[in-house]
């Protein structure tokens, strides 16, 4: 049984180290969604048990009205019809969250986030893989199954911080530290041996926690020319017995 997004969010937000890195997230209701749209320029509406970027709806403020997107489908709605547009994309049997949208940094003009693959083959959490996930053109999700592709994280951070190696190293360390804390926090209440942590960097250089996935996919790491990470992941899987 997968652990719902809201359960993990509530567990993480209790941790004072993680709390500043979590975007505002609530169970979705019509009134809550409208309030968040008054506060933020965009919101994301996600199924509590969704994976692979499936079913995610982005609502973005326009000068007049809203752009509501799900996958490759797009609707323009006014303030009075935006909830109807959102409902048209929702699956009735799923519970949804509404989350603050982030103004993410870009790599060569395209949004990206960071996938950290953590495993606990023995008694200690370790990072088996870290890579940037670069979205396909015109996509607002970076997932592998939605056309996202892997880039070496160092390469993307060097581009982002304009060859400032000390900033790259500091960011890299922060990503590692946060990821280990996330794994330990989620593991307190759930018996898990793998975790996929998705982080993002906004326009101000702040690191945000997008999601922690208790059943992470590893195919992203097969796209890297250096196969060290995917070999480590597969060796640890054998050790864990997955």
Can you offer a commentary on this structure?
The protein has 242 residues and is of the alpha+beta class. The protein folds into two domains: 24-100, Dna Ligase, domain 1; 106-240, ATP-grasp fold, B domain (D-amino Acid Aminotransferase, Chain A, domain 1, 2-Layer Sandwich), CATH 3.30.470.20. The chain is 29% helix and 29% strand. The protein is built from six helices and twelve strands. It has helices at 5-13, 30-39, 82-89, 153-160, 165-187, 228-240; strands at 25-27, 42-47, 57-61, 66-70, 73-77, 96-100, 106-107, 110-119, 126-134, 149-152, 194-201, 207-213. The strands form two sheets. A six-stranded antiparallel beta sheet has the order 1-6-2-3-4-5, with helices on both faces. Strands 7, 8, 9, 10, 11 and 12 form a six-stranded antiparallel beta sheet that branches.
What's the total helix number?
6
Corresponding CATH architecture of the largest domain: 2-Layer Sandwich
β content, as a range?
25-35%
Q: Within the largest sheet, what's the order of strands?
A: 1-6-2-3-4-5
Overall shape: it is globular
CATH class of the largest domain: Alpha Beta
How do the SSEs run, as a string of H and E?
Answer: HEHEEEEHEEEEEHHEEH
CATH fold group of the largest domain: D-amino Acid Aminotransferase, Chain A, domain 1
What's the mean pLDDT score?
Answer: 92
CATH superfamily of the largest domain: ATP-grasp fold, B domain
Bin the helical content.
25-40%
Q: Assembly type of the shown chains?
A: single chain
Report the major sheet: 6 strands, antiparallel
Structural class: alpha+beta
Low-confidence stretches: none
- The CA-CA distance between the termini, in Å, is 15 Å
What is the count of structural domains?
2
Radius of gyration (CA) equals 18 Å
Number of strands: 12
């Amino acid at each position: 049984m997968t652990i719902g997004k809201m359960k993990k969010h509530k567990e993480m937000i209790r941790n004072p180290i993680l709390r500043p890195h979590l975007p505002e997230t609530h169970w979705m209701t019509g009134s809550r969604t409208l309030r968040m749209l008054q506060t933020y320029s965009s919101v994301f509406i996600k199924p509590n048990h969704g994976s692979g970027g499936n079913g995610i709806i982005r609502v973005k403020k326009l000068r007049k009205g809203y752009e509501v997107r799900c996958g490759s489908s797009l609707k323009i709605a006014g303030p009075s019809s935006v909830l109807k547009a959102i409902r048209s994309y929702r699956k009735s049997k799923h519970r949804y969250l509404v989350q603050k949208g982030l103004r993410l940094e870009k790599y060569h003009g395209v949004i990206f986030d960071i996938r950290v693959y953590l495993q606990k083959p023995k008694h200690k959490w370790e990072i088996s893989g870290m890579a940037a996930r670069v979205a396909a053109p015109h996509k607002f999700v970076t997932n592998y199954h939605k056309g996202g592709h892997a880039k070496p994280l160092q390469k993307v951070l060097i581009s982002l911080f304009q060859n400032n190696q000390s900033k790259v190293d500091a960011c890299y360390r922060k990503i590692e530290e946060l990821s280990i804390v996330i794994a330990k926090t989620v593991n307190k209440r759930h018996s898990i041996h793998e975790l996929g942590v998705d982080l993002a960097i906004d326009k101000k250089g702040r690191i945000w926690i997008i999601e922690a996935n208790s059943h992470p996919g590893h195919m992203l790491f097969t796209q890297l020319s250096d196969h060290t990470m995917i070999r480590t992941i597969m060796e640890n899987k054998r050790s864990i017995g997955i």
